[in-house]
Amino acid sequence: MELFDTHCHIDVAEFAPDRAAVIAAARRAGVTRMLVPAVDAAGIPALLALCRAEPGFYPALGLHPVYVEQHRPEDVDFVAAQIAEAKPAAVGEIGLDFFVPGLDRGKQQTLFEAHLRLARAADLPVVLHVRKAHDQVLATLRRIKVRGGFAHAFNGSMQQAQQYIDLGFRLGFGGTLTYDRSNRIRALAVELPLEAIVLETDAPDMVVSNHRGERNDPEYIVESLQVLAALRNATPQAIAAATTRNSCAVLGIQ
Questions:
Q1: Which of 145, 198, 240, 251 minimizes the number of CB atoms within 10 Å of its CB?
Q2: Which candidate, 241, 199, 202, 243, places its Cα nearest to that of 223?
């Protein structure tokens, strides 16, 4: 099996002590490709260096909405310059987060729109972070159209899911699937067409149930795969092949 982790922060400090071992374990588990999204400007150079060094690692460049108060106006210009120079696979992690209290929604919206324009100019897909803001994100995507992308850790309704699909997006499922109480997410994973689904870890966050309280590692994507296969009454091999194919289609890679 070949698996594509469409959302893995393998570059962050949590992996600094044992990053090489984590990557080796992921490869043994079948994770042959990863999309590595940026969250701030400061981390972009190291992220790009890691993706250049590791076969099958693809960078996404952008400024995370949760850190909107930390981003400086010139950071968007820096991201734009890096997109032009490094030619990443996607723009992200970008979006709107109306879940975390105290985040300026107007600043988030301005930042989001700036990134969508960068993605449209570069003809790149985007990696969306959306919490409690699906309708606002969808309205923005209809106004500033991009090439589609990934709706990371999708947790919206079936109606919202269809709107993302209509806009060229695939929906990311990961560790949340592995929890018995995730009834709504599991129902979505069954009802959606398989062509709309991709797998992700969000490592080091959103850990699978068997490792609750621990760091999430990319090798644990296999547990999400197994749950998804069982829910859909399919083989893990079939789900792995389909989700990898879906991931590559979004990014325009073979």
A1: 145
A2: 199
Amino acid (one-letter) located at 161: A
Distance, CA of 222 to CA of 26 (rounded, Å): 9
Q: Is-cis flag, bond preceding 93, omega within 30?
A: yes
If you count them, how many residues does the chain have? Answer: 254
Domains assigned to the chain: 3-251 (3.20.20.140)
Give, in order, the Cα–Cα distances in Å from 96 to each of 15, 70, 206. 26, 15, 18
* Mean model confidence pLDDT for the chain: 98
Does the pTM surpass 0.90? The reply is yes
pLDDT value at residue 254: 86
Work out the end-to-end distance of the chain between its first and last CA atoms, rounded to an integer number of angstroms: 16
